[in-house]
Amino acid sequence: xxxxxxxxxxxxxxxxxxxxxxxxxxxxxxxxxxxxxxxxxxxxxxxxxxxxxxxxxxxxxxxxxxxxxxxxxxxxxxxxxxxxxxxxxxxxxxxxxxxxxxxxxxxxxxxxxxxxxxxxxxxxxxxxxxxxxxxxxxxxxxxxxxxxxxxxxxxxxxxxxxxxxxxxxxxxxxxxxxxxxxxxxxxxxxxxxxxxxxxxxxxxxxxxxxxxxxxxxxxxxxxxxxxxxxxxxxxxxxxxxxxxxxxxxxxxxxxxxxxxxxxxxxxxxxxxxxxxxxxxxxxxxxxxxxxxxxxxxxxxxxxxxxxxxxxxxxxxxxxxxxxxxxxxxxxxxxxxxxxxxxxxxxxxxxxxxxxxxxxxxxxxxxxxxxxxxxxxxxxxxxxxxxxxxxxxxxxxxxxxxxxxxxxxxxxxxxxxxxxxxxxxxxxxxxxxxxxxxxxxxxxxxxxxxxxxxxxxxxxxxxxxxxxxxxxxxxxxxxxxxxxxxxxxxxxxxxxxxxxxxxxxxxxxxxxxxxxxxxxxxxxxxxxxxxxxxxxxxxxxxxxxxxxx
Length: 548
Prior knowledge:
By secondary structure, this protein is of the alpha+beta class. The chain folds into three domains: 22-103, 2-Layer Sandwich (Alpha-Beta Plaits); 117-458, Rossmann fold (3-Layer(aba) Sandwich), CATH 3.40.50; 466-547, Sandwich (Immunoglobulin-like), CATH 2.60.40.3080. It is built from twelve helices and 23 strands. The protein has helices spanning 2-23, 42-52, 83-91, 121-125, 128-132, 206-216, 243-262, 289-303, 319-322, 383-399, 414-426, 447-459, and strands spanning 27-36, 60-66, 71-75, 96-103, 147-151, 233-237, 271-276, 280-281, 307-311, 324-325, 334-340, 358-361, 367-371, 374-378, 430-431, 443-444, 466-472, 478-484, 491-497, 502-508, 516-521, 528-536, 539-547. α6 links the parallel β5 (147-151) and β6 (233-237). α7 runs parallel beside α8 and α11 packs across α12 (447-459). The longest helix is centred in the first third of the chain and has 22 residues, at 2-23. The protein starts with a helix and ends with a strand.
């Protein structure tokens, strides 16, 4: 029996070593994916693992991946034993069916096999191929299906490069005359047309077909082109020609996202952005009541987590001075876009250093097209109408990033999450001399830089527990500690004198998206040397501070 167990351990060790070498070393440190038997108790497993390691593992439940299948993501405290050793210990427990490291997937190809992709120079300008190395869209890390709403007169949504990414309201039964999901709309199975009060796709116009293609033409399917998102769901809001229909269309989007937030995804739709490639030249929101109402909706949409992207005028006018709808609305939840060509050169169109946020490729955009019911491809879209969906598509892509915490509050704090996504785009544009002084950012869209910006937010201040620096005020009575942590659970900040006596203690709650620091005032303490420490469990770092 001992020889059998020895052989098993040798074989397991050889297999594990070979498997690990074949995958490389790219896995999330401090995480294990565990599948327990049907009879096992998760808490008992965690207690046993911590007991087996003398408490050194600090194992805790990080996420219920698939509770019905008893599959969990287990995290470990700073200073825990080697993760591969913990994997082997877990695998030896009778209640554990499988235990795996959380390896990062290896992309097979980030260049789509769509035959017309070579004509999509716009994607190269905004670094989409490098972005696709990280994500091609689809779901959030929390499993929400990402939806973008497109407001248009109509589009050919049966186009073979669009049909697979069309959004359907699966909570609704089509054509039964009943509001099955209780959202206030009857038979909205395929979206909503405010003009007809049905779910039809409008007039099948080539303009809308092109906009849909930029956002989410199915990628890597061996036909046509690739959208910024190879996988995404696009909500049909059609029949848009007048402010009354714009308002009704936006309300439909607002209502569906609000329902999704309130029901934790049971109803509604996880709409993260709307696209408006239309507007009125030389108009300010104060021009009439319809414009005021229209503008007010962006804040309402933002409150439930929906960002909105608007195309500025194709006329070469200063929007700051002459106005434009909707890009003069000024909402924090509206991103305004002007036009550059596939080389990044500014094309005469609306500008404004306080009104227009950034440029994106519109001129020369090659995308889905149609003549009536006949699908095809063309570069006819162009203008700011073509520029805007590049930004809308990027919003959807950023929500799909595997950055834990970046969108984890999308349902509980949706407006803050939306602003975080907006800032990731606007704070990471590509500098563009033609847009300097003519846009807020002075640059054009760069998806890869936006993704790198998110990565910096998630990982820039993340690492082994450490004190990164100590600063004192002029009076030397206040000290500031900058620190980093590997996880974002509470830590303890303590101050001791040189006799080891505890002078001060408080709880720290590290923030994943900002630099972390803690201040302490020494005004009431005598001169001497003090020890400042940050700790959690067995992990502790400290620094000495002399008060002179």
